[in-house]
Amino acid sequence: MVALQKAIRRMKTVKTGWSTFSVTPGLPWRVHAGIAGNERADELARRAALTKKTAVDYDRFPLSHAKKVIRAASLEEWQQRYTEGSTGEITKRLFRRVEQAYRVLRNIDMTSQVAQTLTAHVRLAQYLSEFRLRDSPHCACDLAKIQDVLHVLEDCDMFLRERAALEAEIGVLISGRHLPKILDDAHKRGKFIKYCKNIVNRCNKINL
């Protein structure tokens, strides 16, 4: 306790002594003293801070542009994963780019038939044979052809009449290279989805 009291008294004495001076004590410290290049840099920085009247440089990079750059980078990464992924073959045939898939799918009523078309989880020979519910993955229309979603939508003779009627109505052939174009057009997309629903329902009944 005695030592603490002595320390307090010393601090008070020092404080009283400083108060008698008319100037504030300070310790000048030049970090780059003696280094010519650094001293020049300090001088230029000081001069710029005191004399520059323009706005800061980074305000020429608007926030909206930054968001655009970030979004573009994210989409590019997403596209790479989408392209290189080992799943989603039917989805990739319908939508070549992820931004198209996002734009179109959010405007579609996601019924069970649409979901089955996009995922290829339809009662088709190929799908059923994977679970050993069917001996062969081939289609009854041609034993050399695999009965999958793309086959029944584009090529299967069992649905030739429906496909021909749709092609005449929208003016576009139902084929792999035309599917992204069809889905990009709201009018054609609606009719194509109706066609898909019909084909899926019939396939589910045929392969009971």
Describe, in plain words, how this protein is organized in 3D.
The structure is a single chain. This protein is mainly alpha-helical. The chain has a domain at 63-207. The chain has 11 helices and 2 strands; from the N terminus they run αααααααββαααα. The protein has helices at residues 2-19, 36-51, 63-84, 89-94, 98-105, 112-119, 125-130, 149-154, 160-170, 179-184, 186-206, and strands at 138-139, 142-146. A two-stranded antiparallel sheet has the order 1-2. The protein is elongated and about 100 Å long. The N and C termini lie far apart (95 Å). The mean pLDDT is 83.
Main beta sheet: 2 strands, antiparallel
Going by helix content, strand content and strand pairing, the class is: mainly alpha
* Unreliable stretches: none
Radius of gyration: 37 Å
The total count of strands amounts to 2
Protein name: Retrovirus-related Pol polyprotein from type-1 retrotransposable element R1 3
Organism: Eumeta variegata
Architecture blueprint of SSEs:
Blueprint: H1 2-19, H2 36-51, H3 63-84, H4 89-94, H5 98-105, H6 112-119, H7 125-130, E1 138-139, E2 142-146, H8 149-154, H9 160-170, H10 179-184, H11 186-206
Antiparallel strand pairs: 1-2
Protein name: Retrovirus-related Pol polyprotein from type-1 retrotransposable element R1 3
Organism: Eumeta variegata (Bagworm moth)
